[in-house]
Amino acid sequence: MKKNVLLVLIIILSLSFLYGCSSNDEVVLNVYNWGDYIDESVLDDFTNETGIKINYETYPTNEDMLVKLTQGGSNYDVVFPSDYMIEKMKKEGMLSKLDKSLIPNLENIDENFSNLEFDKGYEYSVPYFWGTVGILYNKNMVDDKVDSWDILWDEKYKDQILMMDSQRDTIMVAQKKLGYSMNSKNVEELEKAKELLIAQKPLVLAYVGDNVKDMMIQGEAALAVVWSGEAYGVMSEHEEFGFALPKEGSNYWFDNIVIPKDAKNKEAAHKFINFLLDPEIGFRNTDYVGYSTPNKKTFEMLDDEVKARKGAYPSDELLENFEVFLDPGDFIEEYNRVWTEFKAAN
Amino acid sequence: MLKKYSATPYVIWSILFIVIPLILIVTYSLSTKNPINGQLVFSFSNYRKFLELKFINVLLKSVTLAFKATIICIILGYPMAMILSKMEAKLQKKLIVLFILPMWMNFLMRTYAWMVILGKNGFINKLLSMVGLNLNLLYTRGAVLLGMVYNFLPFMVLPIFTVLLKIDNNYIEAAEDLGADKLTVFRKIIFPLSMPGLISGITMVFMPAVSTFVISNLLGGGKEVLIGNLIEQQFLVLNNWNFGSALSVILMIFILVFMAFINKFDKDNDDKGGVGLW
Amino acid sequence: MVNKYIKRIYTIAIFLFLYAPIILLIIFSFNKSKSLSSWDGFSLKWYIELFNDKHIMKSLYYTLLCAVLSSIIATIIGTFAAFGIFNMKKIQRKIILNLNNLPLLNPDIVTGISLMLLFAFLSRYKLRLGFLTMLIAHITFNIPYVILSVLPKLKQMNKDIYLAAMDLGATPFYAFKKIVFPEILPGIITGMLIAFTMSVDDFVISYFTTGNGVSNLSITIYSMTRRGIKPTINALSTILFTVVLSLLLVVNKRSKSIKDLT
Questions:
Q1: Which domains does chain C have, with CATH numbers?
Q2: Using an 8 Å Cβ cutoff, are B158 and B196 in contact?
Q3: Which of A181, B26, C12, C33 is most exposed, with minimal Cβ within 10 Å?
């Protein structure tokens, strides 16, 4: 009796398993994006419109994404890496050239973005969002003027500071505070940045990922290093917060959409990219994620209040000390070493 | 025929998915990637790197924390197991069920709950605020320790309990008849006889505690880096599989030595092979 | 007796410690707002949202599918293996048992990474990380539990009956089915249950061996903790907790001894 039950169970399960496999015949687009970086209803709309199913997965940092892509055994069709990562992936031949004729919506993108150092003329990538890195602070908890990275080393705010758990972004803060370039290839400068970060460790409450928003809203900390979109996401709902771009300079970055070389569904991937560049879709995503849109038609649709956000759409003079990350090539080993040693330090 | 070959599928499976992967780890740990052609080159450099003070310190920190967690689990768990083992059968049955039940909740979820309890505006601080206090509890080493004790306490209590339950009451009565007081009975009879349970308890707490990266990540806020975190970072963020493999091998050897050492205390361990596990 | 009260208080304290977080999770699954620390009124909306959350539902499906398949396969392989090991010569048995203990003694993270290296190596033969690789990993760490719960039952069995059956003309398979199997069935069921539990609860090994959009509940919860958790997960935990609680109560009513449970 019991054995029969077992047998039936096995049959049912293997059937459902096979069913799961056989449905793989239709086109399923594997999209790999940053966490919380799209209005997910947009995905359903795409499926409804084109009949292409989407398998949506997220990653916390560029580095995690790269590892997943290189370790093999994964197939992604659309990925959203940042500037320096695109440069690196391009160098290593991991990207597939875009067929611009399949992306007519490209004309919606502001011309300024066609001239970015890491990928001129949208050869391998098209802009998705861009933004800056600054300090989000709770006005009820911070009396001082926030305009410099120095405040993150102020003893007064011990255990009230949140830093990013992301290699280049966090090292960048120390480099900028020291007045170095964040693309430095000078070991001595890196060592000094490392020492500075280790010295900061006792003051830091935690090194966090995307949960930084919730933590700030709940009042767990007073100051946090965040990407601009996260800051405006918090500020649009909570008045007690402010966002500042430090005067020593910071990072301004571009997240572009790419198609990996070994993608299985390149045609569908182009369709999806074109879909994302639609002004209406772009507006919904911009509204949801709070970052700066490169899409000029989307930009026109935004509220004046949003357009006036200095941290999201900064003027050129504000961006004076700002840099875009570059791929350090083999020198990344030094960055990795510094990061590991900083992490391991007590 | 059946007798002879019925273990064959298992042996093949083990070779494929246990032995070969371990060989791969050792191979990776003993090599570095040639930056020019990506080929693996034999080298001890990963192990040499570990010998730098900062990495040894991480291992030491992990071991100290896991050791503390184990001791606390023994202190909290042993009396609990004793109380449970002496209860009347009906209540005992119910309480054991209640004891196992939390283990069925996803352990990430349980750990997350502690994040909520310990947070700056969490449960404990809300109570403390009534007396005008606000403490930093979350994202500290203490929080990581608490997470370990909380998650692994049942692993200490259950094996000890199982062994205590099996102790023949006649021994205890005989000793009492011979004039032994309670402490002597515990020292001379109960404790020695509970040794196998205690030892499997220690292994089952110490091992996951020393190698965890989840608890330290969630409750330590990325500040408390243990050997497990270091390994995870090498594999999933920094893409340095060679150093990560070396760290894994070191952790593995450390644990095997620890087990060999601790099993010395368990004299009649022969051929029983982990029955005390559950 | 004072002693008795101390014992009672101690027991209550330990259980409070074990249950405080769980009770908290359950209470706040009924909270109106997203907050997990301040109460804003009763609502069932997180339960509704849970059933509409495709991501969580999908990972629940993978978790259960993987747990059922891996525990069944591991039980089959493990039971036969235990029978084989039982009949081996002493030295051979020692070697195999040590091999069997390896995944138990190895920390999860090492098992996970070693399998990840293997799968990465096999990826040049078109093996893709996903459900299959996760399933293989789960079977691998489940087999030892099955073997360890079946072997003691084999040892308790009277070997002569099996031999007698063969003498009377039964084929080895028939003798196994009719004589050995019923004897060791309790061990097999225990092993399968343990395997199922281990599979449902596993995070570390799955984390390193899956990919391509396949994730189990633990992985989903982990990525949620890094992104800001929603009470939908509390709702799910509450449901799972209730299911397990009622299952255990039923089993407890029927089982004669505690040993079956522990």
A1: 53-229 (1.10.3720.10)
A2: no
A3: C12
At B134, list the tokens: 């606000």
Supply the pLDDT for residue B278: 33
Contact assignment for A343 to B54 by CB distance below 8 Å: no
Shortest distance, CA A67 to any CA of chain B (angstroms): 6
Q: Give the best residue of C122, C192, C227, C230 to mutate against chain A (max A CB count within 10 A).
A: C227
Nearest to C68 among A13, A72, A208 (CB): A13
The alpha carbons of chain C give a radius of gyration, in whole angstroms, of 23
Q: In Å, how far is C247's CA from the nearest CA of chain A?
A: 18
Amino acid sitting at position C164: A
Residue C226 to residue A211, Cβ atoms within 8 A? yes
Predicted pLDDT at C255: 57
- Domains in chain A, start-ordered, CATH in brackets? 19-129+254-307 (3.40.190.10), 131-252+330-344 (3.40.190.10)
Asked whether B137 and B123 are in contact (CB, 8 A), the reply is no
Chain B hits for C106, CB-CB cut-off 8 Å, are: 252, 255
Instruction: Tell me the domains of chain B and their CATH numbers.
Output: 1-43 (no CATH), 53-277 (1.10.3720.10)
Retrieve residue A21's tokens: 């496999």
Instruction: Quote the minimal CA–CA distance from B137 to chain C in Å.
Output: 15
At B260 the pLDDT is 86
Residue B49 tokens read as: 């790197």
> Stretch A193-219: mean pLDDT, rounded?
91
| Chain C residues touching A57 at Cβ < 8 A | 212-213
Query: B39 CB contacts (<8 Å, ≥6 apart)?
Result: B33
Name the residue in chain C with its Cα closest to that of B159.
C262
C3 touches B at CB < 8 Å: no
- Residue A278 CB contacts under 8 Å (≥ 6 apart), including other chains: A105, A108
Please name the residues in contact with B206: beta carbons below 8 A apart, sequence gap of 6 or more: B66, B67, B69, B70, B258
Tell me which residue in C68, C128, C229 faces A73 most closely, judged by beta carbons.
C128
pTM score: 0.87
**Measured between alpha carbons, how far is C131 from B101 in angstroms, rounded to an integer?**
28
* Range in B144-153, B161-170, C217-226, C244-253 the model is least confident about: C244-253
Tell me phi and psi for residue A344, to 5 degrees. Answer: -75, -20
Two structure tokens written together for C182:
């019923």
pLDDT: is A309 or B147 the higher one?
A: B147
C260 has pLDDT over 60: no
- Please give the single-letter amino acid code of residue A118: F
Burial status of residue C98 (CB atoms within 10 A of its CB: 0-12, 13-18, 19 or more): exposed
pLDDT score at A269: 95
The pLDDT of residue A8 is: 56
